[in-house]
């Protein structure tokens, strides 16, 4: 008698694109460059705060945007190029940290907000303000994913 039980196979989900779609930014390529050049919509900031679980002012501190500037950008509806670039860097590091912890946002947040030996005792969120710092954090995440600790 043939079996009527079907094997369950979940549909492949591109979690990376889902993150970027929820955020409201393309993940890579010419569309990302265009979005950054034209000015990242303010909604990306509010989405990023919600996704990361950070308070608005806390996120602003990590991406080096003053309260007054944040209020002006809310009225204008978009950020300037350099501010949008910092938001993108934060989002990229945050996404990679969540991936490192296999989707566990709580563990990713804990890791991002605490000093890390592989970064000379610095907190990853404090390094995101510069391109060099963000690259160092992404490099460390890559090494941790591959089991390279030195």
Automatic annotation (TrEMBL):
GO molecular function ontology, one term from the record: DNA binding
InterPro entries, per the entry: Antitox_Xre, Xre-like_HTH, Xre/MbcA/ParS-like_toxin-bd
Ranges of residues in domain Antitoxin Xre/MbcA/ParS-like toxin-binding: 97-147
Superkingdom, natural source: Bacteria
Record-annotated Antitoxin Xre-like helix-turn-helix domain positions: 32-91
One Pfam family it belongs to: Xre_MbcA_ParS_C
Protein name in the entry: Antitoxin
